[in-house]
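Lecture 7, part 2: worked example. A protein chain together with iron/sulfur cluster.
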Amino acid sequence: MTESWGQFKSFDGKKFKALEADFTNKVSKLIGGQDLTACFQCAKCSAGCPVSDKVNIQIHEVMRMLLFGIKEVLETDMVWLCSTCYTCQERCPQGIDITDILFGLKNMAFRKGIRPSGYVGARQSLYDTGRLYEPTDWERDDLELDPVPELNTADTKKLLDKMKLMQLEEEE
Ligand code: SF4
Ligand code: SF4
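Predicted complex, written out as structure tokens:
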């Protein structure tokens, strides 16, 4: 059994309450989600996944959990540790847009408050400064670049307010 690398709980020996049809319906509306029933569990996606030894649930198992309406799938490492390499999507013999489904799952998980703290900090930084990461002048000095230019964040904030970036958790 692979040791879990992420910060979410282990699923070893866990019994799930399955068949929450509402959840499966919601997932089927995500990009790629309409093809969930085409998955025949060949595991070709997991065989090529570069983070397969770092997660507590493999990507082909994620696909089955979605079909069975197991909401705990949002708490699996795979949702956030997926590197978006698209290998699974390229390999799937059924042409399922697996990586795109994972993007949708990230959004669903974030709204429910299931996300690494770093993402919350990145969102705050984007809102406050217009940047995901604040470059420092000493780093730029080393590269002989000009000082960090000032950003007018008013327009960015207006845009992010319209997108309700800071209220995502309240949407559902
Ligand atoms: S490769 Fe496609 S069909 Fe095979 S287990 Fe993964 S999602 Fe299912
Ligand atoms: S896109 Fe994500 S789930 Fe798919 S193979 Fe790459 S890391 Fe694994």
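Residues 98-111 form the longest helix (14 residues). The radius of gyration is 19 Å. Keep this in mind for problem set question 3.
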